[in-house]
Design goal:
The protein has 439 residues and is α+β, with helices and mostly antiparallel strands. It is 31% helix and 26% strand. β8 and β9 form a beta hairpin.
């Protein structure tokens, strides 16, 4: 089964009021008896809910059980309320092919609604996308056209999108911000370079070096290396928390070799750096990571060199400086990097601190069948999951000292030189309980 289908759903005034009440109570599901329609030939059913002469909502649909003679129950979910009622006449007039426009109009005008032809639904989608950018984002979330275009991306490109999306979800969680910011992501029509290209434009500021410099004033010397950043700024805000996320890369998505996430907590002047690694499937059919990765030795060497500069014996001068661990480097091993735009969940994986990484490499417990170290869920012993990692990093229980912010510049620049995407996130907040730095 494949393809896309569209259905016009006509609601009475009473049923429209019932729908409004359900949506006000955060219930985005709704059932409605509709004339029987063919259930074959499509994998996605888009429902256009009509009140009067306007489309007021768009929803995903699924054919349910019989609802009486020549009727079937339509189960709708993920209902989106349009920012304004869209006149049917406006949609029809935006369709350039007059024959298709006529058939679309007939479908809209039927008393109980009905199913569009295959050409009709695509014409309606394209017309709505042309009419209004906001409406385009809504309709694109339901459209199989996006899925078809995603399938054309290379495996490496989709894996990079998956790790970048996970990095964004991670920093939103670390900053205590709602993770539903990513719900509005759609695949842009232009060639995509990074995940943030699909976020709403109102949340993205393209190439504004002045804003970047302003945010990075807390990093000595950062204003002199702005040329290293060839990317986008995405801003998020909730209450007193602001999060600025910077995407920096030098290559096309397909040529990037991975993602580095750098998270900076401005309140505690602390940052951590996470490098994503994809696990393979071992001889037992289980996910495992082999230390034979050709780039791994160089990347670990870079981390060690930076850590040698961080690793001083100086005691914390105040409560802000205290950490359980001052080593800011982690790996995240992921069994799969599957790009699922609609999923609100972080990718399952193991966060492993750099110091523990070295111990695993030397342990007899991680010897693989050929004698080299191999990390799996069965032999890793301990690791941090998504929740545990967020708990210790969000409160700055781990991370480098404030005076080491200069070294962050080297970490970002090295990431870019290795054809990886560097995602730098800065959380800005000063809680009332921490107004005095001299606790």
């Amino acid at each position: 089964m494949g393809g896309i289908a569209g259905l016009v759903v006509k609601l009475s005034d009473d049923r429209s009021k019932t729908l409004s009440i359900r949506l006000k109570h955060d219930n985005d599901t709704f059932d409605e008896p509709v004339p029987k329609f063919s259930s074959g030939g499509y994998s996605i059913l888009i429902c256009f809910i009509v009140l009067g002469n306007c489309v007021t909502h768009i929803a995903m649909g699924k054919k349910g059980r019989s609802a009486g003679t020549d009727m079937t129950r339509l189960n709708m979910s993920k209902i989106e309320t349009l920012p304004y009622s869209l006149p049917i006449k406006t949609i029809v007039e935006a369709i350039p092919d007059t024959a298709i426009a006529g058939r679309v109009n007939v479908c809209f005008e039927q008393v109980r609604g009905g199913r569009f032809t295959d050409g009709g639904i695509r014409a309606v989608i394209e017309a709505i996308q042309l009419l209004d950018p906001d409406l385009s984002r809504i309709i694109s979330k339901f459209s199989l056209i996006t899925n078809e275009r995603l399938e054309k991306l290379s495996t490496m490109a989709k894996q990079n999108l998956a790790s970048q999306k996970d990095a964004l979800l991670s920093v939103l969680r670390l900053a205590g911000l709602p993770e539903d910011f990513v719900d509005d992501w759609v695949l842009p029509k232009k060639p995509i370079r990074r995940y943030c290209d699909g976020l709403p434009k109102k949340g993205s500021i393209k190439d504004e070096a002045s804003i970047i410099r302003n945010d990075f004033m807390c990093f000595n010397g950062m204003d002199r290396v702005m040329d290293e950043f060839n990317g986008d700024v995405v801003k998020f805000k909730s209450g007193s928390v602001k999060l600025h996320v910077y995407w920096a890369d030098r290559n096309e998505l397909e040529l990037q070799t991975g993602t580095d996430l750098i998270y900076y907590n401005e309140t505690f002047q602390s940052f951590v750096m996470v490098q994503y690694k994809l696990m393979d499937i071992n001889e037992r059919g289980r996910p495992a990571f082999r230390y034979s990765d050709p780039q791994l030795a160089k990347e670990v060497c870079r981390m060690n060199n930076l850590w040698d500069k961080f690793n001083t014996q100086q005691k914390p001068g105040n409560c802000f400086d205290f950490r359980f661990c001052y080593n800011p480097f982690f790996f995240k091993l992921c069994p799969k990097l599957v790009f699922e735009p609609e999923s609100p969940h972080l990718i399952k994986g193991m966060y492993i601190p750099l110091d523990y990484w070295h111990l695993l490499a030397q342990s007899t417990e991680t010897r693989g069948p050929h004698g080299g170290p191999v990390i799996s869920y069965e032999n890793v012993g301990r690791y941090l999951n998504n929740t545990e990692f967020a708990a210790i990093v969000s409160k700055a229980w781990v991370g480098c000292r404030p005076e080491h912010s200069k070294i962050l510049l080297k970490a970002v620049k090295q990431s870019l030189k290795r054809n990886r995407t560097a995602i730098l996130a800065i959380k800005k907040q000063v809680p009332d309980s921490y107004q005095n730095n001299n606790l």
